[in-house]
Specification:
Radius of gyration: 18 Å
Mean pLDDT: 80
Number of strands: 17
Low-confidence stretches: 187-192, 283-297
Structural class: alpha+beta
Amino acid sequence: MAHQSGPDIVAEHSCFDGQRVPESERMALEATLYLYVSTSDNRNDVSGSGFVLRDSRTPQGHNRILTIRHVTQHALRQHGRIYVLDRFGDILGEARQTPATILSESRLAQEPDSAVRGEPGDNAVLLDMQPRTPAYDQISGVDVAPRLYRGIMYAWFTDPGALMPGISGAALLNEHNQVIGIAEGTGGDNLHSHAFVTQVSAHDIQKVFERQDTGENTIGSATFFHGSIAAFMPVAGPGVQEILHLQPTFAPPENRVHVHVFGYPEELCIAYHGQIQTSDPGPMQEMVRIMHDLSGL
C-alpha cells in the first residue's frame, strides 16, 4: 500500500504517502492531526487522532481541535501533556482541553458517558492549541455539517480494513469534507471478531517523527481485521455545541452514504473509505457471522 502510485495517491513526502486520497479530500487530510499524550512517568503514554475545525478560534486566534473524550481524559488524570503532530511528523505545539468542556471526576460520574443517552460511547471534546510554529495556523481546517445525526453511526470499512486502536477522535467526513461524526472505536465486543485479516503496510508516524531528514525507512506494518463494526459518535458533548455556535438541523444521513476517515491507527497513517449505516447494525453483524462460517476462521 505504501508504494502505490497514481493520480489519487498521496506523494507529498508525508506519512500518508502511498494512501489513496482524491484531490477533493486533501483539505481534510491536511486538517488531520496525531495526538500524543505523554504522561509524567512515560509508561502510560497513549495516542489518538484529532482534527482542526475551521473558524473555531480561541481568544488567542488559533483554531480549535476536536477529538473524543477518552483521549484527553487520560491526559487530565495522568497529568500528561498532549503533543500535536502533523502528517509530516512535525510537532506543531501542545494542546489543552478547552476549560468549558472539562468535567471533574464527580461530574463525570453524574454526566452521561455517551453523547447518545442510553448508549455506550463517549463525548466529543475541544482542545485549545498553543502552537510552537506558524505552520499550525496555516491549516484551514474542516467544517461541521449543517445537518447532523443525534444517534450512533456504524460503518464496516474494508478499504483498507477495520478501524483499529489509535483512530479514536478522527473525523467521519461526508463527500463534502464536512464532519458528521467522531470515531469512537469498534462497536460492541467484536473488536477482533473478523472474517479475515489483512497485513497493512504504511508509514509509521512515530518513525517519521524520529527519522526526519535521515532518509531511513519509515514503513510500518500491522494486522488489520475485517468484520469489526466501527462506531461513530455525534458532534456533541458538554460545552461543544455552545462554543462552536452550532445550531444544526438534526436528521439522519441516508444509509450507505460514502464517507472517509483519516487517522493514525496502530500509529500508521491510514486513509479509510467506506459507507455508514445509521440503522441497527444487526444485519452487518449477521453478515460477519456468515463470512466467519464461510471462511472457516
